[in-house]
Design a protein that fits this description.
This protein is of the alpha+beta class. The protein has helices at about 10-15, 35-50, 60-70, 70-80, 120-130, 150-155, and strands at about 25-30, 85-90, 90-100, 105-110, 140-145, 160-165, 170-180, 195. It has an eight-stranded mixed sheet, with helices on both faces. A hairpin with a 2-residue loop joins strand 3 (about 90-100) and strand 4 (about 105-110). The longest helix is centred in the N-terminal third of the chain and has 16 residues, at about 35-50. It is globular and about 40 Å long. The protein binds coenzyme A. Coenzyme A (COA) binds next to helix 2, strand 4, helix 5 and helix 6.
């Protein structure tokens, strides 16, 4: 039972326990489908927990995992075609999701399994999302203040500070922005074989709601 009085769903708990990756082959970046739901949740829970361990109390981490990293919380963005996955030998090693909120094209999530980070997967996921931002003048990215890896990742890719939101005594939420008229900076080569499925069926720029973190 968590601080919120809710029980972590068994599927998500199993996915948390299975924290080591089995796959080693080339990574394919492609739109998610319904069969990816468990893998998306597993990657998000592993990466979210590790990333926020020094930013939130253990109780709050469980609360946020139960709020944002469940099958129910991630199914709508998969169903509506707003989730991209990194698939290595059939195992989901990274995910990104996006949507249009208040007229802004927002990358709500970019999460790579801790065992698969720093090999170019996050960069490829972000590029795949940006391909889907046609018609928008900028892409926005949001993360918790103190998440230095996310900030460095964003700055290296041309994002600049755009604003911050206070959260009742918790660390602020930072917003960064990259204008799409501006060329994306070159980022160093990766050791991951690149197979990226291009954007063919881009969801229309309607309002999708808030889908953080
Ligand atoms: C931020 C995050 C998505 C980056 O994913 P990643 O797969 O590690 O990203 P990349 O490998 O493309 O790039 C990460 C770094 O690895 C380096 N790198 C990339 N390929 C490399 C390689 N082959 N060898 C060594 N380093 C490499 C890059 O230079 C890059 O450094 P930089 O970000 O300071 O520019 C990942 O750390 C993560 O999931 N964090 C937790 C979730 C989070 O905070 N998400 C952001 C907010 S939504």
């Amino acid at each position: 039972m968590t601080a919120a009085g809710r029980t972590t769903p068994p599927t998500a708990r199993r996915a948390d326990v299975r924290s080591r990756l089995r796959s080693t082959g080339p990574v394919v970046i492609r739109p998610a489908d319904g069969d990816d739901l468990e893998g998306v949740v597993a990657v998000g829970r592993a990466a979210w927990r590790e990333t926020h361990a020094t930013l939130y109390s253990p109780e709050l981490i469980e609360l946020f995992l139960d709020k944002w990293w469940t099958a129910g919380a991630n199914a709508p963005a998969i169903r509506s075609g707003r989730t991209i996955v990194a698939d290595r030998d059939g195992e989901i090693v990274g995910m990104a999701s996006y949507g249009v909120t208040d007229g802004r094209f927002v990358v709500w999530k970019v999460y790579v399994h801790p065992d698969a980070q720093c090999s170019g997967i996050g960069g490829r996921l972000l590029e795949a999302v940006e391909e889907r931002a046609a018609g928008h003048d900028a892409v926005y990215l949001t993360f918790t203040d103190g998440n230095t890896r996310a900030e460095s990742f964003a700055r290296t890719r041309g994002f600049v500070h755009d604003g911050r939101e206070q959260q009742n005594g918790l660390p602020d939420v930072l917003w960064m922005r990259r204008g799409l008229g501006e060329a994306a900076p070159e980022v160093s080569a990766t050791d991951v074989s690149a197979t990226d499925v291009p954007a063919t069926d881009v969801p229309s720029a309607t309002e999708d709601g808030d889908d953080r973190p």
